[in-house]
Amino acid sequence: xxxxxxxxxxxxxxxxxxxxxxxxxxxxxxxxxxxxxxxxxxxxxxxxxxxxxxxxxxxxxxxxxxxxxxxxxxxxxxxxxxxxxxxxxxxxxxxxxxxxxxxxxxxxxxxxxxxxxxxxxxxxxxxxxxxxxxxxxxxxxxxxxxxxxxxxxxxxxxxxxxxxxxxxxxxxxxxxxxxxxxxxxxxxxxxxxxxxxxxxxxxxxxxxxxxxxxxxxxxxxxxxxxxxxxxxxxxxxxxxxxxxxxxxxxxxxxxxxxxxxxxxxxxxxxxxxxxxxxxxxxxxxxxxxxxxxxxxxxxxxxxxxxxxxxxxxxxxxxxxxxxxxxxxxxxxxxxxxxxxxx
Length: 342
Hints:
mainly beta; 10-stranded parallel β-sheet; 9-stranded parallel β-sheet; 2 helices; 28 strands; globular; disordered N terminus
């Protein structure tokens, strides 16, 4: 017995075999691997891919340093999605300098996955991700995404999140520079499934950080225990993160889990004042946001208000013993005053 009906046509059996083979070939060709065989690091050079340029299929990069992939101009066709640093022991690096890339498939893009280490740096151009963007996915993975220019837009979401930083692994996203833009269709989550994420904002030159500002889905911010929101203040202050509600149907909420951390510093010397680092349209749930260990709490304080997170920096920090000496002077003054009253 071969498990087939007795009257199963031979032609149908042949067709099934051909279909299965076609499916296997299609699955294998759905991924293109970066090789840098031409030695010029050019993302647009088909020779640098194992079979052909990843037109509409997943682009996989597991080389770094001198063999990293560099995009410096709009490609003739868009890849389906991007995976950088896949698998234990592998390191991948993609550098985007200019051009426009709009990933075409409905698959997640990932930086550091399956125990790998991934780096994505963007100094210019327009990068459009068509589904969720994951940085540091799976245990043992490390993902780093540094944006110092250009536009980064995440056009879709999975489970209410467009950007996940530290999903089982360690993830780091940083935005700075002049005119940089980050827009997401839905939420941002830092740290989940035992992972740790860092979201860093550097200075006031950034044009926009709009969470939920791309499309019709509400933004949200979920920061897990041990994950860090890090900000650097320059002479112009800082560009705030905006958690956007769309459609007037509630949303745009913020959650700081117990043990979530805030790290603050100056980029250009001490500039005292109060700075707004995040605003939101919805409601906030603060279960225990705290300063990171290296923050000088004699200089810095923060406030979680109904619709904003602000930080305040003092002009100077009293030297050790200042308050004790001041108390002593007040006491001596009180003694002298009482003596004059006798």
